[in-house]
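To the wet lab folks,

You asked to see what we're planning to order before we commit. Fair enough. Below is the target structure as tokens, and below that is the sequence we designed to fit it. If anything looks off to you, flag it before the synthesis order goes out.
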């Protein structure tokens, strides 16, 4: 093991911020001069204040509310994100075409974005309704400007992948007669496209922007404030108290702290940097290889996007799409999220046992009494938030009172006391953290608008199902695979094709954007296979999240590698291996929706069988990947146990019993190997 002092080198706050900017394009803000900094800060706080007022007290027309949110987002992106990504993030040199570090062109684009966004909603509603289907030249100009500005804002804040996808969909809408096979359609004109995307609520002002403006903004602000008043530190300290003393303790601390942080933050990269700054050096110090330490933190941090109550933005999108209460979505998400962490914990524990790693010493652990005395009050806002959600209140109502609770606790708590300056900075940072996700939502609105305009979702769904059916017919004709019906093979291959599409799509765009796009395409395909809508939405969402730890674009894993000083690609591969449970869980709840608690046909008996089978399957696949149960395994044993693990994931007592019987030889061989190693070690001790 390396020298302790070397392994315990913690990165500074500036270095961590640099890593976050490097791997998270959503945080790559450019520095500005004193005048523009004040203007931007005031605009950010005004944005937060407006949304707080609108949610708690305002009665604002839906279209106007969405447009005000989008105008803030686009204008601030052009002021805060440069045309080209900077590597140094230093103030741009003075030039005649810049003011306070921002070009006059960007300032002009910011002003134009406000005008194009607010133009339509500020017109009298009766005039707007008359123009739908027959937009004026001014409507087409403003709609075109907003479309182009949205694509550029998305490119600056989240990268080029999503804007390129949106452009492909636009071309598909315009040149439909040239599309191949089942994708061919009649096409539309530019006027028809702008009419649909700009004049209706099916495009730029669609559901995605509506959810961001109504719910997600407030929950992001809540997460920033909750972290500021000490809740994040409380989570890390509690994780150390719960798991720190056991074998490989720092890695288990990373799992628990990331799970706790996931309740208030849906950003994989932010979670990785926040908790990884502490856990990764501690893991290296106790003997974990750097790439493994980074992979543990990255994999655990991606769980924040599937952990109630915030779950990034996906939970709120599901509320709008499925028209069911948020508390039902959170109930459905609970056990799949726990299975994700159970899978990581299993692999980390086995790795610690295999390497013989220690836990934290008493002098490295915080004192329980001191932790609770210092930060116990910071948990109150989260309890209030969850209480209002579970009591059936709307998400925005719960978020408003959660934010109020954060402010009250911040002013009352003597340990992490909140000053007016701190509150101003927190409100500004909360708004700043929503900009990229807002631009992504607007760009996704373009894609979804084209889907509704052309009906391509059903066409692609047909292509997926037909391809899966053809594959199923081929495999179903081979013995012993013919034991399963063609329909069963068609379902399986449909799920595999959709899963692969989600991972590829998620490799370059935010999880929520991936989810919205893929659910527009995958939901019709899964509906043709009689999959319940709730299950279809969760399936697509889970595989979109998996992209954050799937090479070649595993952003959370690469950020963790930057902290650990490890090889990014090796870290990404290890993170994917640790997160394999997340890849298996969606198949579990497709074949047995009882795992989601509120799905159709739920019974406690089915739920118990499914949960037990999933835990056995995840545990055995963990053993296979770790190559260790209570003793090292051969390659043949690992392959054998990996194949057996699939029997547990297929729910049912019969398959579970067969799987347990097939495990007996492995368990016997492991006991013999363990006894042999113990006797060998004892003999060495006697010789000594």
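Sequence we intend to order:
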């Amino acid at each position: 093991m390396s020298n302790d002092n070397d392994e315990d080198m913690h990165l500074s706050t500036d270095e961590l911020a640099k890593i976050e900017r490097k791997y998270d394009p959503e945080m790559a803000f450019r520095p500005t001069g004193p005048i523009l900094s004040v203007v931007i800060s005031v605009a950010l706080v005004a944005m937060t204040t407006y949304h707080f007022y609108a949610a708690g007290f305002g009665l604002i027309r839906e279209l106007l509310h969405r447009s005000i949110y989008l105008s803030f987002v686009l204008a601030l992106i052009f002021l805060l994100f440069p045309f080209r990504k900077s590597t140094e993030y230093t103030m741009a040199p003075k030039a005649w075409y810049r003011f306070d570090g921002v070009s006059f062109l960007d300032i002009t684009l910011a002003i134009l974005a406000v005008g194009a966004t607010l133009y339509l909603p500020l017109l009298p509603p009766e005039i707007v309704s008359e123009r739908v289907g027959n937009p004026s030249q001014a409507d087409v100009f403003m709609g075109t400007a907003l479309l182009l500005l949205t694509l550029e804002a998305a490119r600056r804040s989240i990268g080029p992948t999503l804007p390129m996808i949106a452009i492909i969909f636009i071309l598909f809408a315009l040149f439909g007669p040239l599309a191949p096979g089942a994708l061919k359609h009649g096409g539309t004109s530019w006027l028809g496209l702008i009419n649909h995307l700009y004049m209706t609520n099916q495009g730029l002002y669609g559901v995605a922007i509506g959810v961001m403006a109504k719910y997600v903004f407030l929950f992001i602000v809540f997460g920033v404030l909750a972290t500021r008043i000490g809740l994040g530190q409380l989570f890390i300290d509690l994780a150390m108290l719960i798991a720190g003393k056991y074998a490989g303790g720092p890695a288990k601390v990373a799992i628990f702290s990331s799970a706790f942080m996931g309740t208030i933050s849906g950003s994989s990269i932010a979670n990785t940097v926040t908790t990884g700054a502490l856990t990764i050096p501690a893991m290296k110090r106790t003997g974990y290889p750097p790439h493994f330490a980074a992979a543990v933190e990255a994999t655990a941090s991606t769980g924040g996007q599937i952990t109630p109550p915030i779950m990034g933005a996906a939970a709120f999108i599901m509320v709008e799409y499925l028209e069911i209460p948020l508390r039902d979505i959170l109930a459905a998400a609970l056990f799949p999220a726990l299975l994700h962490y159970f899978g990581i914990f299993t692999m980390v524990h086995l790795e610690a046992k295999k390497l013989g790693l220690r836990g934290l010493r008493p002098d490295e652990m915080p004192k329980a009494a001191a932790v609770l005395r210092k930060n116990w009050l910071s948990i109150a806002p989260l309890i209030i938030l969850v209480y209002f959600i579970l009591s059936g209140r709307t998400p925005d109502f719960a978020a408003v009172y959660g934010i109020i609770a954060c402010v009250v606790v911040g002013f009352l708590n003597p340990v992490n006391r909140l000053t007016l300056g701190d509150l101003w900075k927190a409100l500004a940072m909360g708004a700043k953290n929503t900009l990229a996700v807002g631009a992504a939502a607007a760009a996704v609105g373009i894609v979804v608008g084209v889907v509704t305009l052309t009906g391509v979702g059903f066409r692609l769904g047909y292509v997926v199902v037909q391809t899966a059916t053809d594959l199923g017919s081929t495999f179903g004709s081979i013995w012993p695979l013919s034991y399963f019906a063609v329909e069963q093979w068609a379902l399986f291959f449909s799920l595999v094709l959709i899963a692969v599409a989600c991972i590829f799509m998620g490799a370059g765009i935010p999880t929520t954007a991936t989810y919205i796009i893929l659910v527009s395409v995958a939901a019709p395909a899964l509906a043709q296979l009689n999959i319940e809508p709730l299950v279809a939405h969760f399936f697509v969402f889970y595989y979109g999240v998996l992209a954050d730890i799937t090479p070649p674009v595993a952003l959370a894993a690469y950020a963790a590698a930057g902290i650990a000083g490890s090889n990014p690609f090796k870290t990404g591969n290890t993170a994917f291996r640790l997160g394999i449970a997340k890849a298996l869980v969606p198949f579990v709840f497709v074949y047995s929706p009882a795992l989601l608690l509120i799905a159709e046909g739920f019974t406690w008996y089915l739920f118990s069988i499914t949960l037990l089978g999933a835990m056995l399957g995840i545990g055995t696949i963990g053993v296979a990947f770790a190559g260790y149960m209570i003793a090292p395994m051969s390659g043949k044993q690992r392959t054998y146990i990996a194949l057996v693990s699939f029997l547990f994931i297929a729910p049912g007592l019969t398959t579970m019993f067969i799987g347990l019987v097939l495990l007996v030889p492995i368990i016997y061989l492991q006991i013999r190997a363990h006894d042999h190693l113990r006797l060998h070690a004892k003999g060495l001790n006697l010789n000594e």
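Structural context that might help your review: Residues 454-477+490-687 form one domain. The longest strand covers residues 98-99.

Thanks,
Computational group
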